[in-house]
Fold:
Amino acid sequence: MSDIIRLSAAELGEKIAAGELSSVDATQAHLDRIAAVDGDVHAFLHVNEHALAAAAEVDARRAAGEQLGPIAGVPLAIKDVLVTTDQPSTSGSKILEGYMSPFDATVVARSRAAGLVPLGKTNMDEFAMGSSTEHSAYGPTRNPWDLDRIPGGSGGGSAAAVAAFEAPLALGSDTGGSIRQPAHVTGTVGIKPTYGGVSRYGAIALASSLDQVGPVTRTVLDSGLLHDVIGGHDPKDSTSLTDEWPSFAAAAREGASGEVLKGLKVGVIRELPDSGFQAGVAASFHASLELMQKHGAEIVEISAPHFEYGVAAYYLILPAEASSNLAKFDSVRFGMRVTPSGAPTVEDVMSATREAGFGPEVKRRIILGTYALSAGYYDAYYGSAQKVRTLIQRDFDAAFGEVDVIATPSAPTTAFRIGEKIDDPLQMYLNDLTTIPANLAGVPGISIPSGLADEDGLPVGIQFLAPAREDARLYRVGAALEAALLDSWGGPLLDKAPALGGDR
Amino acid sequence: MAAAKLMDYDKALELFEPVLGFEVHVELNTRTKMFSDAPNPANDEFHGAEPNTLIAPVDLGLPGSLPVVNETAVRSSISLGLALGCSIAPSSRFARKNYFYPDLGKNYQISQYDEPIAFEGSVEVELEDGTLVTIPIERAHMEEDAGKLTHMGGATGRIQGAEYSLVDYNRAGVPLVEIVTKPIFGTEHRAPEVAKAYVQTIRDIVRALGISEARLERGNLRCDANVSLRPRGQEKLGTRTETKNVNSMRSVERAVRYEIQRQAQILADGGTIVQETRHWHEDTGVTSPGRPKSDADDYRYFPEPDLLPVQPAPELIEQLRAALPEQPVARRRRLMAEWGFTDLEFQDVRNGGLLDEVEATIAAGASPAAARKWWTGEITRIANAQERDAALLVSPADVAALQQLVAAGTLTDKLARQVLEGVIAGEGTPQEVVDARGLAVVSDDGALVAAIDDALAAQPDVLAKIQDGKVQAAGAIIGAVMKAMKGQADAARVRELILERAAQ
Amino acid sequence: MLARIQLTDDEVTSLTGQLDAIVDNIAKVSEVATPEVPATSHPIALSNVFRPDEVGQTLTLEQTLKNAPDAADGRFRVTAILGEEQ
Ligand SMILES: [Mg+2]
Ligand SMILES: [Zn+2]
Structure:
């Protein structure tokens, strides 16, 4: 395996800046890797035929003396939920097969401007509905740690691409855990920023009040570098915050220096007992807490009595908003059209198209959401669920009065087998138990690898949550724990992953 | 459409009390749309654009697109709310009204539901005989217009029998304010007249505010008229119908009258009124049944998660209140006093919708009598002949300039009418038309004298009569001279000169 | 039907069962969603987010119609419409 693909984005960026490596070299190495292993992993739905040209252009910009940012020239994988002008955008759905957007998502446009090289579009559960990427209309992505297992979801493609060294950086989106839970099961890093911290413009909407775009990487610093590129106010997204954000890369560097854990108050939630987690997940979580304690952190038990209502509230809000957001896929202006035989009316055409174009999970949620919004039910359903958001926010407010960050395991179990839970939506929904509250409350969350579960040798992640707008705190804490863990492991966790494809 | 059986109008009023209600949609004339920065076709500058050329991504509901509220549209809506005597909500919000229809890019309309921007007002309207009627306003809310469908194939160009339809989304997203009245009681036999006066008043208000082009024939103002009847002495309201597609003041009046007669006949025959939308047919003067109102009208409203509450500062509201123009009734009373017209003359102007034009023409230097004469006379005649809006034909400044040419003796009335035609035909200002067409009165006495001498020489008998003191005989010479001068002479001057020449 | 999806009988059967999940969720949230708790519609409260009334870049007709399943005469084409405008 080429050394180039093992480099972090920060290292690649430095080498490219120093002239030791060109962006074309870096991009070619990753394209080679994709060619070698993606047949097995299936992280990509589309590999960008313009990638080398884009890389050459970055090299030319640099040669012309343009001042470029720290990760200019580094390849970037893009979750297919984000629209792109140079590649199709399908959101993992048949109904959008071949769709070409006339505009770039803001995060994509900012990435291009910063000299990142779009490498391809990554696989995902259809319209980001799922926790396993099994609901992609284009077939599942496989976990690089065990090809029979799921890579998490909905952003399984982005996480797997990064974990399989097919890309150093990826973009994801997180509505209930779709960045953090895949990070957990693939041994990678993922951040859901504060709601409004990163523009949603050009992210194909699932649930507008929950969706947030964020970085997917192998190191905390790389996430900070990418977050610095994509974040900040965007007038095209009304919910975008106007805050001046600090550099998250700087925060990560500060965290890695070690002092951050001294005196840090880390909250653990009383209402999330170990019994709710796979043994190896709970054990890895506690080991991380102990390591943090060893570095001077204080573990404080806090109460978040309303977290347990999060999943129920989430599965009222999400289908409701999704049913409305997905109404636009009607075969009139874009996307698939299925015309039934006979003399169909446009109503018949729309119904037939949506029947054929949407997968079962999407239909399920649209129907549930339509029902939840129907006359007479709104107050009881959507309205009540929004009250739970208030209660969860209050839990967070109270907790953050006592602690600096809250820590939880990122998900209840390690990667399960493909097909294992696909017929049991309720089991599937519980995957997002610990990640959902952050989306409901709008606060930021990070998942970093905490180790491997004893019983199956699969990766486990630890999640940290911080108050809204305190994303930098997550980078400091995440990078501090990451540094301590790397020390104890003697190298990155991903070094323990089995070899793939061409390496076998 | 077969005409329904109609009860005699007076008989209907004897048996039933009509209760009215109106929903008027006003298209705002902002430069851009409600939620996108595409040009607004309801602004004169962009009217008439080719189909689908005034389009931003959100107008098509493209994947990833997001709405952003137009600040000017909000201010216009507040102004309109204030002009309707409404309270302005300290906090209002947008909601999604979900229904599938091909003219809706997103398959939901962004509107306002439980929290409209303006509520609880009233507006005074004046009937032609000066009677004042107070119309109670329930609410005024902001929303977006839908695209335009053209039904192709089939005989009628109507939806029934069409083979297919074409969709133009230029109008999708045009800012609308929907004004909803409370039930209007006590209009009795004047109900149709009140309906017309109400729409006229709304038009006067939005014109005076300058927030809409306010042209009914273009759909800038659209009225849905609700009519119900209840038997004399009954408390409970009858079932109402909602007549749509009423596109002129006169139609509003006729449609209300028609519905009263139609419903009365049904009720008197022991039938029941179906709650439904009905369509007004301008050509035949009848309404036909449309879509029944039913449980299917489940719009699944919920707060628009992509947009935030509108919370206008009290200072802004007061600033807009201070800038409000005169109320139409007050204005009419002032103008009547200033202009010194008779009641009949004033009604002529008002019913022609020409108050603004006459006022502006007077402001530009014409006398009230002349301004009225031009607008209600020649300009209205041409407008009717061309089936266009008088206000669109010619500007008040041009009319004033034309009148000044008459007053200065440059043009006779007859010549002035020719010049007006030139101005309307787009040949330029009155002066430019005079110059280009060479229409000015021949004020060169030399040319006139030559023509007079010729005419006198040709008709020596007439000359003799004049010299005999039979001055009226000069008419024959005047006619001959005017003919020779192709009408471009001032008849009074010609007469003077004839008498002078005859005396020599 | 409101969601405008032509479902097969099997799908209807399985979905009907899953409506129970919604009912369970509603029972769960009802335990705490009492009248005095205000609803949160946006996780981070903002207000008065407006755009200046200035014309931006529009899509070309080609861009507008690029993904259209069917178009004619510069417009999107659909088969006959049964229902009426709302
Ligand atoms: Mg209405
Ligand atoms: Zn409306």
Notes: Chain A has a mean pLDDT of 96. The first strand of chain A starts at residue 44 and ends at 47. Chain A is about 40% helix and 10% strand. Residues B 23, 178 surround magnesium ion (ligand 1) (CB under 6 Å).
